[in-house]
Structure formats: C-alpha cells, structure tokens
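hi support,

uploading two proteins for the ticket. first:
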Amino acid sequence: MEGGAPGALIQFVPFILIFAIFYFLMIAPMRKRQKALQSMVANLKKGDAVITQGGLYGEVSGLKDDSVILKLGENVKVRVARSAIAGMQGQEDQS
C-alpha cells in the first residue's frame, strides 16, 4: 500500500503541468490586457478618439461616472457605458 501513494501523485504531474502552461499562455496575458483596458477607460479625457465594442468610432465629448458621451459625427452624440469602450482608435489591432 505504501508504494501506491507516490504513484498516484506522479499521475497528477501532467495535469499540473498542463494547467501551468495554460495559465502562462492564456490567463496571464488576458489579465494583463484587461488591466490595461481598465486603466485606459479610467483615464479617458475629452477629445480622445475611441472605438466601442459595437464598432462605433467616435470622439469623447463628455464624461460621467459610468458613461461616456461620444461624438460620432456632426450633431450626432450618443451616450455609451464605459464598459462598452474597446480601445483607442489606432490601437485596436494590438490585441
């Protein structure tokens, strides 16, 4: 019976290695990208050119606590949630 315990532990080593590889290749970069996006959204200012998750390109014309007023064109302004901002224009292809 004593010989069975180390064998059972060795069987879990491949699963642990797969999880470690998955973490460093998938989860860690995703968390880093998400923190950068949150920082960018928190630091938005009037005049920034952004793109929304829906694909709308606009310029920030106003900021509120949980929303952003985007100018999409002449006399066209929309209010979107800050969480709908996907990135700055020109930086959307860096993901």
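and the second one:
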Amino acid sequence: MKTIIEPFRIKAVEPLRMTTREEREGILRDAHFNVFNIRSRDVLIDLLTDSGTGAMSSLQWAAIMRGDESYAGAESFFRFRDVVRDLTGFDHILPTHQGRAAERILFELVGGPRKIVPNNNHFDTTRANIEHSGAEAVDLPIAEAADPANRHPFKGNMDVAKLEALVARVGADRIPLCMVTVTNNSAGGQPVSLENLRAVRAVCDRHGIPLFLDACRFAENAFFIKRRERGYQERGIRDIVREMFELADGATISAKKDGLVNIGGILLIRDEALAQRADALLILTEGFVTYGGLAGRDLEAMAQGLEEVVLEDYLAYRIRSTEYLGERLLRIGYQIVEPPGGHAIYIDAGGLLPRIPPAQFPGQALVCALYRAAGIRSVEVGSVMFGGKDTPPPLELVRLAIPRRVYTQSHIDYVVEAAAEVYARRAELRGLRMTHEPPFLRHFTATFEELA
C-alpha cells in the first residue's frame, strides 16, 4: 500500500481562514518580515514548529478530566512518574513546564564560565541556556552532516574522534557533561544510532564525563534505529527507547514533541546529589516537585501521550508522512537535507538562492516567500538562528516542521504546490537586512526589511 493513511479518525475540526496574496503582503510587512510576529489566524498551514502544536487523542482529553490539582503529592504526578520510569528506567523524574525549563535548571547547576558542553548539535534554546550560564556550547557533528545530499542513515551522529580531541585539548574537568540530541534537530532531524551512542558513552566513561540526552524526539529516533540499524529490525520500539536511555546519566525532554502534548517538559537525572540540587532549584523557580509548573491535567495528558508515541502504527505514519513531503520537494528540484528527517523537512536555502549571501539571510528570504505565496509559515535555521558571530553556520536551511496528527495529505499537497510556485520564481527573491537584533534567541523577535 503506497497511500499514506492516518491511523486515526478526525473527531473535531478547527476552521482555517483563507487570505489573499495582497493581505499576506501587508501582514508580512507589519510583522517586519519575521513570521514569529504573525498572528495564527493569518496563517493557513503552520509549519513553524512541531513543538506543542500537535493534536491530542481522545484518550488524552479524557485523561485531562482525571487531573488531580493538589499542590503536593497529586495522584496525577505518580501516574506520570510511573509511565516515565517504565519507559526510561530513570528513578529521579522532574516535571517542568517545557523543555527549556529543564535545560535552564540543568545548566544553571552545571554550567558557568570556562565550562564547555559538547553535543552532536545544540539546538537554539539548549545553546542559549548553556551560553547564558557563561559556558561554551560546542557542536561535533559527523562530516556527512554538512552535505545535504549525503544519505548517511545516521547523519545525526556525533563525531567521536572530535569528542576525544576536545577532551584532550581542554581537559575533562572543564566538561561538566556531554550531550547528544536525538533526533538531531539542527542537522535536519537526522537520527543517532545506538552504535554511536555507545561509542560516545565509552569516551565519557574513560574521562568521567556524564552523558545526557536532549531527548525531545526519542521515539522518532527509536523508529529510525529499528528501520536502519543492523540487529534491531525485530526489536520493539519500547525496548529500543529503553536501551537509548540506559546509556545516559540524564536527559532533558520537551514533551511538546514526542510527549504529544501542548505543554510540558521533563528533567531526568541519575546522580543523587545533582538531583537534590535540581529539586531545590525547581521549587524555587517552577513549583513543587510533584507538579513542576504544570497543572495535574497536563501531567495526565503527558503520561497518556508517552504511551501513544511508541505505538509503531503511529510512528510509521509519522515518518512516512514527512518522507512524502521531502520526496515531492526533491521532485520539484529543491535540495533538502537527505534522507528526510523524522519531524521536518529542511530545504537548502543557501543552495537554492546562491546570489543571496548569508549576511542577507537567504533562509529568511525563502520563509517570507512561502508565506507570501500561500500563507505557509516555516522557520529559518541558518544565519538568523545561529549567526551573529564571525563565522556563518555551515548550512542555510529552512525547516518545514510537521505538527503531529494535525494535517492531512491534502494539506501537504497544498504545501508542495506552493513550493513549486516559489521555486519557479526563485530568481525574484530578495535578501533582507536585520533592523533589530535581540541579545538572545534573536530569530524569535528580530525585525527585518527587504533589500531593493
């Protein structure tokens, strides 16, 4: 069967508002050419992010009614804790209101000046929280990650030799932990193999460095392992997920991705002393340890979502739907990060628009063009998101992130048709100049003007 069939029925619908090209032109100008400033009602297909934008199941909505809103010791926390413990094997489980809250707590405790935190690729909020602590975030992707057309099956892997070299150069005492992001968002949503995780773990063990996962999309990563890594084809998704987490000393998780919820995060820690310090900081900034800034109903929805995300029928549909968009864009002529990632398709905007230099933000120019053409909101992953230094990022990308269980195949076909129109008119696209640059996470609130 080649038709992608959604493994669910639609029970509720939300109307979309159509806009004209002239309306979108005005909206884009009023937003200062930053689509984060556009109201959601003015967006037809929203591919800005897959974080917190998914549709919850009937069982999740039912679980919400069971929420225990007690300040301390709520039954909803214990249901949530038991699901996470069974899935990951961790005993110390802290809920937070979202993933970056878990990152902030972690790096406030272990970061600081002269500290260095390696990763296969830090994403934006992780890097910002590390740098806010005074530490340095270092990316160590494999060489294949820099080539969009390379179809390495685990292009999200960390370069283990580079990790060894970094430890030798700066000393293990300056590295409070090593992190691996699964899947690797900045590298195109590419998966990390268990073989690579074990190799990174071995380096960390030799030097006494804790290994943490940025595990926002752990289930999607596990599905890629089952599909692509030798010896795992007959293993269950839950077993693969457990093996991933057993290699780690801790993890930060935005449950707004593979938790299938609209809000929520998790901090996992094995070290008892560090866990006690995290408890104290969470109480200071998030709430009590049994709710972590969330309502009991949110904990219930998250627990149910973590049960549903490891179902193989769901994951097969999820990954195949993303592949479908990537294959159609390749057919038009776009170069994307290959093979298609789990949660998003990444277009090589630098290759598409070679006459627009990184200083004029070719990715942002493509983001604006997609909105102008069809009301599609996407996000730049290039010199706006990761620039601001002397060296531009290796790739100028535009990410089309697919919300979970939200859009049908006809929605994606509409995106493809709009992308074909933009591709045909790519010579008309113009670069931009940044008119306001915030000190942190500038892509969220920066403003631009188009160049003549």
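thanks. also noticed: The radius of gyration is 21 Å.
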